[in-house]
Automatic annotation (TrEMBL):
Limits of the Gfo/Idh/MocA-like oxidoreductase N-terminal domain: 2-118
Signal peptide as annotated in the record: none
InterPro entries listed in its UniProt record: Gfo/Idh/MocA-like_OxRdtase_N, Gfo/Idh/MocA_Oxidoreductases, GFO_IDH_MocA-like_dom, NAD(P)-bd_dom_sf
GO terms, molecular function: nucleotide binding
Highest taxon of source: Bacteria
Domain GFO/IDH/MocA-like oxidoreductase: 156-216
Protein name: Predicted dehydrogenase
Stored Gene3D superfamilies: Dihydrodipicolinate Reductase, domain 2, NAD(P)-binding Rossmann-like Domain
């Protein structure tokens, strides 16, 4: 078992602490939080060992799980990696691209592994259909959330939209060509609602909308490709796969047949892939343990986390130019 320590005992940090404590792949050594009062409260309530010194915790573990505010991700990860520790970093990887690139350099120099907490990669609905998403040419995503003061220290692009940016980059095998975006600040000092149009060199276009001032929660993505339409509901963990194939010469009574202007007939059919029940946060943490133990590539590398951050920052820069 890998000895692990958690940095940060806020809302998400407590979830990580609970799951790591239950995991068969980790031994939870303890946690650090700069708020001593909160740290002692969490220790008293749950029994996890509280370290009042970040360096002492890092020295005592093999893996450091960083669940602190984004602004401190870089400093925490740098401390851990310089001591030769593997790091799991909640998304976004860092606050700036320069910080992320420095961590990439440290990862190679120190021969350690890193993973970024883009948890939607482990959403069972997305996992069930990812292999069916082949060369999509149009993608539409909506990630809407009711207002919550937690997370408003960063723009909605880094808070919410970056989930969809990462998922899209994982299935579109092409470089970003152009980005156009708009953002509006309604309640916060930073934008609360944003829309981005991302064009790729291969012709794919992705239209993303994210809001944290919605009246209802929604996390849906739609992928359109040749002969297929794939919809993923990340919130409800449901999928819809609609495909087309050449129509048979003698269609059945219940076959759905379409004919275009050229007279070509296609049959519409539906697929219902199995969706496994899982805990996405536990899965991302445990696959990182597997990558360390087996010396394999983590599912969401620091490089991929950096690319998602780069696109997110370009989205923000686009609407700041307007």
């Amino acid at each position: 078992m890998l000895n692990v320590g958690v940095l940060g005992a806020g809302h998400l940090g407590k979830i990580h602490l609970r799951l790591l404590n239950e995991s068969q792949k980790y031994n939870l050594v303890g946690f650090y939080d700069p708020d001593v009062i909160n740290g002692k409260k969490v220790e008293a309530e749950f029994g996890y060992t509280f370290f009042d010194n970040i360096n002492k915790l890092i020295d005592a573990v093999d893996v450091v799980d960083i669940v602190t505010p984004t602004l401190s991700h870089f400093d925490c990860a740098k401390k851990a990696m310089e001591k030769g520790k593997h790091v799991f970093i909640e998304k976004p990887i860092t606050n700036t691209l320069q910080e992320a690139e420095e961590l990439l350099h440290l990862e190679k120099k120190q021969q350690v592994k890193g993973q970024v907490g883009h948890v939607e990669r482990f959403n069972p609905a997305f996992m069930a259909v990812k292999e069916n998403i082949n060369n999509p040419m149009f993608i539409e995503t909506h990630r809407l959330a009711e207002f919550n003061p937690r997370g408003t220290d960063v723009p909605v692009v880094l808070d919410l939209m970056i989930h969809d940016i990462d998922a899209i980059l994982s299935v579109v095998k092409s470089k970003v060509k152009q980005i156009n975006a708009s953002g509006v600040s309604v309640i916060s000092n930073s934008p609360d609602i944003a829309n981005a149009r991302i064009e790729f060199e291969n012709g794919c276009v992705a239209n993303l909308t994210a809001s944290r001032i919605s009246l209802k929660n929604m996390r849906k993505s739609r992928f359109f490709q040749k002969d297929a339409y794939i919809a993923v509901d990340f919130l409800e963990k449901k999928v819809e796969v609609v495909k087309m194939k050449d129509a048979p010469e003698k269609p059945g009574d219940f076959d759905m047949i379409l004919q275009n202007a050229e007279g070509i007939k296609k049959q519409i059919y539906f697929e219902n892939p199995d969706i496994a029940v899982n805990n996405a946060i536990l899965d991302e943490l445990e696959t990182f343990a597997d990558a360390i133990n087996n010396n394999t590539v983590p599912v969401v590398t620091l490089e991929q986390g950096t690319q998602a951050l780069k696109v997110a920052l370009e989205v923000i820069a686009s609407f700041q130019r307007k």
